[in-house]
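**Backbone description:**
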Amino acid sequence: QVKLVESGGGSVQAGGSLRLSCAVSGYSSDCYVMSWHRQAPGKEREFIAVLSSGVIATYADSVKGRFTISQDNAKNILYLQMLSLKPEDTAMYYCKKTCRINNYWGQGTQVTVSS
């Protein structure tokens, strides 16, 4: 069974940085896409960044140029490096593993950015 565990969230001031990690365990076939999403209070969950086949990265306009998605295949960890954080980046951050048969989500890690 696939399990995703996020970590690295916290409270920072505007302009600061954080690196989120998503540790992946278990196996499921035909999984080629890993992504990060976030959900602020009272808002729907939104897409932030996706890494396809471990190579092709795509970002939401709101984070482009500030966030970087990457992965360590040897350690089975997905990362999200976040720079120049803004108060509007405050949200619960989730990683997602997309497979042909199923999708898997982590439990989330909270990021709070103060002005």
